[in-house]
Specification:
The two termini are 19 Å apart. The chain has one domain: Acetylglutamate kinase-like (Carbamate kinase), CATH 3.40.1160. By secondary structure, the protein is an alpha/beta fold. The strands form 2 sheets. Strands 4-3-5-2-1-6-10-11-9 form a 9-stranded mixed beta sheet, sandwiched between helices. It is built from 8 helices and 11 strands. α1 crosses α3, α1 packs parallel to α8 and α2 runs antiparallel to α3. The chain is 40% helix and 19% strand.
Amino acid sequence: MKYKRVLLKLSGEALMGSQSYGIDAKILEQYSNEIKSVIDAGVQVAIVIGGGNIFRGVQGVTDGVIERAQGDYMGMLATVINAMALQGAVERKGIKTRLLSAIKMEEICEPFIRRRAIRHLEKGRVVIFGAGTGNPYFTTDTAASLRAVEIGADLVLKGTRVDGIYSTDPEKDKTAQRFEKISFSEVYERGLHVMDLTAITLCQENKLPIIVFDMNKENNFLNVCRGDKIGTLVS
């Protein structure tokens, strides 16, 4: 395998499947199978997952009523719900996991401690990071980049429903150009919404490459870790 330790970033919306909110059991099953195949190949896997499938549903109601910081904390709690769901699905495949949270909630997950996270990975456990960075005003994209740097990951993998980075939204524009490889500076210049700018800058400063790929295609996660040319490489 080309990459020994990777951090997989999943959006909360990805867990919705075809639903308008919540968690689709079929998607959980699919993702847990993909994660198992990568673990079985000997790759160390850490995961950061968003909370949009839960929090977006209440955001419209809370806009203008609840301040931004409070809303961000609500979003962090949503990520923990998703992390627990993914943890349960992965463990049903016989893979040991650990859920580490940036906000203390010791009854359901361990507090984030960098050395402990690395030790779990070395023991072959899937490490799921919940509650983002633990701070408001930072996205789960930034949390993914930060955790990847902290654990010494070889790569950040952003699993999406499209097969890479395009010049415009490929679901709206059929003439959108797909990039096989792109630099961090080009991402800035073109205003591409790969990850938020804080996350991109963190990866750039630490020379940590990002691959954006289609997580919904069978064996894509494994093939990316193998080094196959899948998705778009940002480096």
